[in-house]
Amino acid sequence: MNASQFRVALTFDAEHPDRPHHLVGAEDRLREQLGALEVRATYFVQGRWAEAFPDQARRIGDDGHLIGNHSHFHAQMQMFTEAAIRQDIKMAEDVISSIIKVDPAPWFRSPFGAGADDPRLQEALAATGYRQVLWNASGDDWDHRKTAQQVEDDMVNTALAHGDGAILLCHTWPSYTHEGLAGAVRRLREAGATFVTIDQLDQELVPGIPGLPKR
Ligand SMILES: [Zn+2]
Question: How far does the centroid of ligand 1 lie from the alpha carbon of residue 112, in Å?
Fold first, then answer.
């Protein structure tokens, strides 16, 4: 890898959407876009979403994307008791394993990144064979007050600002993600980016605690 080249991991949280710029049929459209762009991504799948939309969930795995666990109930994990934290992680794992036929371990992303610094969650993840995967770049595609162009620009600029090992937070459902994705991928490739999955990054590059990214 020469100085102008760097790795970017596109990550998508697949979950029940709760914002007004939710695109109907988003998950299949996103897969088609990624296929056309020849990008293999990492998906963090919410258990209850996969239960509700098993065909869409299965096709994500069929396309060969890396699959992680995005909890079952998509709650702020630190609000749970210690036993409930483990139960939530395992419920999602069971659903993902039975529907997508892939073991999501060891990749886990807390909903909202919440509770990542809670020792109870850290212990539960360690005990269940997971590690926390946060992000270090984001277009904030969940924020409907932005425009699609702002989301695209911020995806590009935050990934460029981080450089090698950029982990770009995206969601499957915002219309902005769909509008901005092709432009962001093109611009990042022009700047030297190679798109990888989380398991292709040096693990010390993957931030697991908010505010304290491991470098
Ligand atoms: Zn989420």
Answer: 6
| Distance between Cα 4 and ligand 1 center (Å) | 32
Distance (angstroms) between ligand 1 centre and the Cα of 3 equals 34
| Residues sharing a CB contact under 8 Å with residue 129, sequence separation 6 or more, in sequence order | 105, 106
CATH number at residue 175: 3.20.20.370
Asked if 135 and 112 count as a contact pair (C-beta separation under 8 A), the reply is no
6-19 CB burial, b ≥16 within 10 A, e <16: bbbbbbbbbbebee
pLDDT in tens, 8-52: 999 999 999 988 888 888 999 999 999 999 999 999 999 999 999
Torsion of CA 192, 193, 194, 199, to 10 degrees: 140
In a domain? residue 12: yes
User: How much distance in Å is there from the Cα of 134 to the middle of ligand 1?
Assistant: 11
Count how many domains the chain has: 1
Task: Measure 204 CA to ligand 1 centroid, in angstroms.
Answer: 23
**Arithmetic mean of pLDDT over the chain:** 94
pLDDT tens track for 88-107: 999 999 999 999 999 999 99
Q: Is residue 215 part of a domain?
A: no
